[in-house]
Description:
With about 325 residues, the chain is mainly alpha-helical. The chain is about 50% helix and about 10% strand. The chain contains twelve helices and five strands. Strand 4, helix 7 and strand 5 (about 175) form a beta-alpha-beta unit. Helix 9 (about 235-250) crosses helix 11.
Amino acid sequence: MKRILTGLKPTGDLTLGNYIGAIKQMVKMQDEYESFLFVADLHALTIYQDPKELNERIRKFIAMYIACGIDPNKNTIYIQSENEYIPAISFLLECNTTYGEASRMIQFKEKSKQNANFSVGLLTYPVLMAADILYCDSDYVPVGIDQKQHVELARNIAIRFNNRYGETFNLPEPLLNKNGTKIYDLKNPDKKMSKSEENPVGVISMFDDRESIISKIMKATTDNYNKVCFDREKQPGISNLLTIASELSNIPISELEQQFANKGYGEFKKYVAELTANHIENIQKKYNQILNSDILEDILNKGKEKTKKIAQEKYKIMKEKIGVTRNIIK
């Protein structure tokens, strides 16, 4: 079975867009691949994070993913920072990465322009990401088109290391998320719903209460056509709500269009609001049960033990090939 690796950066809030566009796809893929799922808490440190908030998010994100259908029996789940061999591997990979490669990464180029006093970690964290991918010989990494560059960097570093020191790493492939459904901001339906969005009015968090969810959907931007019809160009707001309703109800958009053909936007919004609130409430019940039990400790301890063994062995192999070892190289 091919191995797939997914990282969760514990910043912002998990949104309805994350759930529909990514987590639901991961639930399907966990039956097709050997799945490694980790919280990329070290990646979050490229900019300052409040320690208490970061600590809380780590547990919240894992609990929410499990509540959304990620099966701990089908996934190796772990926290990046609990595996000290991964940063050690990262440094050895940094020494096989050029400054030009690191500085050409899109996020570095954009964020370094915004703040001249950027941390060195902003430059080097794509190599840490490569270490995440390469230490366990991942076959595939699910990414959006904007993240494909990171997998390509990991491949380039792996090829260079293999050429210099002999076959060491598997070459990963980006698994572009073509099937994931994109959910848009409720107030600005031309923009993707984002967990890092500063204005939360158009974003539904998976941690929102029922009243907030209903209020946000009832205030969602629509249009003057007063016709429940899917048309991304002319009716982006209504199209977005139709997509949400279809994904959460498993009813095709065409049937929803017929169902609300002679009804106003108010009635349609109320339907989507109640549907969404009910769906998220059910997930939150599972989430609270998981968060308030010992299940997370058991899951994370198993993940840590398994991945540390893998990373330790890979680190040992790398050190011996590079020459930083007491053993005499033959």
